[in-house]
Amino acid sequence: MDGQDARVPTISPRRPFRGVATTFGALVWAGFRRWASYRQATMAGSFTNIVFGFLRCYVLLAVAAATVNGRPAGYDETQLVTYVWVGQGLLTVVALLGWSELSDRIRSGEVTVDLLRPVHPVVSYLAPDLGRALHRMMTRFVPPVLVGALVFDLYVPGRWWTVPLFAVSVVLAVVISFGCRFLVNATAFWLHDARGPVMLWTLAGGALAGLYFPLRLLPHGLAVLLWVGTPFPGMLQTPLDVLTERDPPALQAGLVGLQVVWAGALLAACAAVQRRAERRLVAQGG
User: Fold this and answer.
1) Which residues cross the membrane (predicted)?
2) Is residue 3, in this structure, part of any structural domain at all?
3) What is the pTM of this model?
4) Cα–Cα distance measured from residue 233 to residue 238, given in angstroms and rounded to the nearest whole number
5) pLDDT at 78 over 90
6) 226-253: buried (b, 16+ CB within 10 Å) or exposed (e) per residue?
7) Which of 29, 38, 93, 285 has the fewest Cβ atoms within 10 Å of its own Cβ atom?
C-alpha cells in the first residue's frame, strides 16, 4: 500500500521469541489504550477510593486503639495506615470487584471469534489485562497513596529489596486475579449465564483477599489455611504485607514464592478449562 506500512507482526521460525514478545507487547498496549479512554470514570473512581480509604483507615485505627498493646495482629499504626491506603490503590489494579467480559462473549457467541485468532485465548485476555493493570497503577494507585501520605504517616520500608519485591508481588497478584476471574467467567461455557458465579466471586474476593480487614486478624489456623489452600491472599494481602514488612525477610520472600506457585497453577488451570470448553463447543456444533 502506497504511503502506509501494512506489515503485520508475525512469529518467524528463526526468531520465535521476538515474534511472541512483539505480539504480547502489542496486546498489552492495546489494553492500556482501551482503559485510557475512560477519563471521567477514572477520576470518579479515584475519588470514591479515597473516600472509602478514610472510612477504612479510621475503623482500623479505632481497632488499634482498642487493642491492649495497640498492635492488632502485629501491625503498628503506620503499617495499618499503609495497609489501607495502598490497598485502596491496588483494589482496581488487581481488579477484585467483578469482571464479566469473557462470560458476556460466551453468552453472545462472540467467543467463537477468539477461537479463530492466532493467539491462545488465555494469552489474548491476559495481555490486555496486564495493560489495564498498568493504566490503573498510573491513574488509580497513585492518588489514594498520595492522599494517604499527605494526611497520615505512612510506613517507610527499611529493607532495600522490599520495594522491588513489592513490584513483583503486585504483578503476580494481577496474574492470580486474572486466573481466578477467567475460571469464574469460563463457567458460562457450561452454565450459559455466569452472573451468579461472578457475583459470588465479587463478594468472596474482597473478604478473602484481605480488602476489608487484614487476614491476620483471623485465628492463626484459619489464616494459614486461607494462605496455603486458596489463592485469595495472594491477590492483596501478600503485596501489602510485603510492603509493610510485616514478616522477617525469609517469610517475606516465601509469600512471594507462594504467589508464583498459585499464578502458575491458575494459568495452567485456565489453559486446561479452555481446551475442555473448546471440545464442548465443537460437540454442540458451535
Assistant:
1) 17-35, 47-68, 80-99, 141-158, 164-184, 196-215, 250-273
2) no
3) 0.89
4) 6
5) yes
6) bbeeebbbbbbbbbbbbbbbbbeeeebe
7) 285
User: Range of 88's domain?
Assistant: 16-283
- State the Cα angle at 127 between 122 and 131, rounded to 5°: 150
Q: Cell 504480547 sits at which residue? A: 24
- What's the total number of domains in the chain? 1
6 within domain boundaries: no
∠ CA 234-237-238, nearest 5°, is 55
DSSP 118: S
The x, y and z cell numbers of residue 3, run together, are 504511503
Instruction: Identify the three-state secondary structure at position 96.
Output: coil
**In sequence order, which residues have a C-beta less than 8 Å from that of residue 16 and are 6 or more positions away?**
none
pLDDT for the residue 7: 46
CA–CA dist 105, 236 (Å, integer): 28
The average pLDDT across 20-25 equals 82
Cβ atoms of 256 and 168 closer than 8 Å: yes
Cell 497503577 appears where? Answer: 137
Residue 246 — φ and ψ, nearest 5°? Answer: -70, -25
Q: Which three cell numbers stand for residue 229?
A: 489452600
Torsions phi, psi for 14 (to 5 deg) = -80, -30
d(CA 135, CA 129): 10
Give CA–CA dist 115/236, Å, rounded.
Answer: 32
Cα 204 to Cα 199: distance, rounded to the nearest angstrom: 9
Q: Which residue has the cell 464442548?
A: 280
| pLDDT tens track for 147-205 | 999 999 999 999 899 999 999 999 999 999 999 999 999 888 888 878 888 888 888 88
Cell of 23: 505480539
Rounded-to-integer distance, Cα 55 and Cα 67, Å:
19
Is 10 within the bounds of a domain? no
89 — pLDDT class (breaks 50, 70, 90): very high
In a domain, 2, yes or no: no
